[in-house]
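user: can you give me the structure for this one chain? tokens are fine.
assistant: on it. calling the predictor now.
[tool input]
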Amino acid sequence: MTKTIETAVILAAGRGTRLQPYTFDIPKGFMPVGDEKLIERSVRLLKKNGIKNIIIGTGHLHEHYEKFAKDNGLTTFLSPEYASTGSFHTLIQGSHLIEGDFLLLESDLLYHSLAIESLLEDERRVLILTSGFTQSNDEVYVEVQDKLLVNLSKKKEELNSIDAELVGIWKISSDLLKKLKEHHQNASDGRNKDYEIAIAKLSNEYSVGVLKLEDLAWCEIDNQDHLERAKEKILPRLD
């Protein structure tokens, strides 16, 4: 039986510069797609699947998340140097709030509820969620061997095989979080790298399982093209 998970961490500190002018006034997670904002949908799906403790790491226009959290019984923490540090640093800034195993996801994702359900149903404690190839531009490709993460990169030439595409939703064990905190403290680039690169780095010594949902309906919304694709192609496929 898989370990019960009741906590999720949403990384939402980024400035969203590629979505300007929208992000002059709101963070990326507050982009409306259909009848809901991205953050509203994520929180709804997490709560629907038994996630009781939702923690949001904030930075850019953090006051929007702080009000949203207050209204919805969530927790936030501010990464003060969000403008000059990476998502890995944001995660570590809030690590003191995390107890036990948890889900980790990004604020700019639109996804089918199957993404959360499948991660929670899988008995493995450390998992990266992947999909088939979306051809959406700006993809992160994943190299897999024996259902384990070998490496990931936006550059295909850096990988020995291209086996899946990163979704941006993970299951992280408390043990792995401890190793990530040590890595952040000791790595020269700990403050600047993205969290997925940090996890990939540790996959050499710590097994990171890969769950691939070939036809998962999902997208990341980083720019105007992504936003149009979300509305036209992804939203109609969602529950």
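assistant: here you go. The helical segments are 38-48, 62-72, 87-93, 114-121, 174-186, 195-202, 224-234. The chain has one domain: 7-237.
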